[in-house]
Amino acid sequence: MKLKGKKVEGTNVEVVVIPRSDENIVFFCEAVKNYEDFDELCPKPEPPERLYPGGVRKKNIEDPEFKKAIDEWNNQRTAWTIITSLAATADLEWETVRLDTPSTWGNYEKELKESFTDIEMYRIIQGVLRANCLDEEMLKEAKKNFLQEQSLQKEK
What we know:
The protein is α+β, with helices and mostly antiparallel strands and 156 residues long. It has helices at residues 36-41, 64-86, 107-115, 118-132, 136-155; strands spanning 2-3, 6-7, 13-18, 25-30, 49-52, 56-59. It has one domain (2-150). The protein is extended. β3 and β4 form a beta hairpin. The chain has five helices and six strands, in the order ββββαββαααα.
């Protein structure tokens, strides 16, 4: 796809800098393009069917085991998004997280806590969220920049 004659490509990348006395620690948080790899490793749980009067079968989304499975799936999806987004950071090595092993994904939190304060960890996660979302602040800033460019072009 092209916009104004230029090919639209790439993804949003947020840069998070954690200041340290010896040198800054820099994370690159890149937006996740799609969830195909995640879906392949972790298919979304399906609710069980329930037999209702009259022989009607419907999916039972209120089933406690299904709700538990969906919560776990959502937690895995969040963890996968975080570690996949942070993979844009060159030379980042996880000690206990393996992208191809879903049971290890939740370890990202423990590893971050071992190296960073809660506030620093929050900033890193916030960078991942900003890269993967269009929050209101980002949209306002983009609109402001666009309108400023338009104003400058009119003045010329």
